[in-house]
Specification:
This protein is α+β, with helices and mostly antiparallel strands and 289 residues long. Helix content is 30%, strand content 20%. The strands form three sheets. The chain has a six-stranded mixed beta sheet with strand order 4-8-3-9-10-11, covered by helices on one side. It has a three-stranded antiparallel beta sheet with strand order 5-6-7, with no helix packed on it. The protein has a two-stranded antiparallel sheet with strand order 1-2.
Length: 289
């Protein structure tokens, strides 16, 4: 695991941090270092890093070419600037992954090596669900509604290049799309958008945060779901709200602590989860997770 991590950090540090660093007020300083100086680099498995990079390329290809990868680190360039590297990655083989990484990537030291820090990551949770509503399965995951419009603001003002907003048209006006509270109240019901029904609303909430997952289906079998779109509302980390109300101590805050509190307070949980107005929509996936 440590060897794989070394390779993955070398190839993917820039991309994983590119989206999360913008939540910080001050970006972490990056200092170029030789790839060979990474602990375990000489023995690291590099094939998994190449596979992960190909997933990043797929995400880049869905963005406007002029869109910046990170507003915090403009040196990372635009989605279009990575097209040649992504094309080269397609031609690389697992056996040639090390050569590809060493030829196309630089390693960076994040922050002060004397400091301690926290790396966060995403995973595919496995939860209980059913394809049809019934019994304990009452919480839906929704497919992406067809009426969501994604507007590229750069088309209207070059100073807004790379920025997009999500919404829908109602009575001739372009307005924000339904938020979590509205979706939870059933505004999407009756449109055949329910992809799968889960047994636990807390599982559904955290599956949206992770963006993908595996559903153990009632009666046997399983299905994988993955990110298909979003409502465009700003994501809010409800952990800070629980800290502010004294529900969870700051030093004890974790994903597990949030889940435990929500399940222990089912009457208050919907209102707290609705503080995060962002909604993620899903599609069924096949193949590797």
């Amino acid at each position: 695991m440590v060897r794989r991590l070394a390779a993955a950090i070398a190839a993917l540090l820039l991309f994983g941090c590119a989206e999360t660093v913008e939540k910080q007020q001050q970006p972490i300083a990056l200092t170029p270092i030789p790839l060979a100086s990474l602990p375990g680099w000489a023995e690291a498995e590099t094939g998994p890093a190449l596979t992960a990079f190909m997933g990043v390329c797929k995400r880049f290809s869905g963005r406007p070419a002029a869109q910046a990868i990170s507003n915090a680190w403009p040196e990372l360039g635009t989605a279009g600037a990575w097209a040649a590297k992504c094309a080269a990655a397609k031609r690389a083989t697992p056996a040639g992954a090390r050569a590809f990484i060493e030829a196309n990537f630089r390693a960076f030291q994040a922050g002060d090596p004397q400091d301690t820090g926290l790396f966060t990551g995403y995973f595919e949770p496995e939860v209980r669900g059913a394809r049809a509503r019934g019994g304990p399965y009452q919480t839906p995951l929704y497919r992406k509604p067809a009426d969501i419009v994604v507007a590229d603001l750069g088309v209207f003002d070059e100073d807004l290049a790379g920025k997009t907003i999500h919404g829908h048209v109602r009575d001739g006006r372009f307005i924000p799309y339904f938020d979590r509270a509205e979706v939870g109240a059933g505004v999407l019901a009756g449109r055949n958008l329910e992809l799968v029904w889960l047994a636990d609303p807390v599982d559904a909430f955290f599956l949206e945060i992770q963006g993908s997952g595996r559903i153990r289906l009632a009666g046997g079998g399983a299905m994988r779901v993955g990110y298909a779109g979003k409502n465009g509302r700003a994501y809010r980390a409800i952990g800070r709200d629980l800290i502010e109300r004294g529900a969870v101590r700051r030093e004890e805050m974790s994903m597990q602590a949030i889940q435990a509190w929500l399940r222990a307070h089912p009457g208050d949980a919907p209102a707290v989860m609705n503080l995060n107005r962002s909604v993620v929509f899903f599609e069924e996936r096949t193949g590797a997770g």
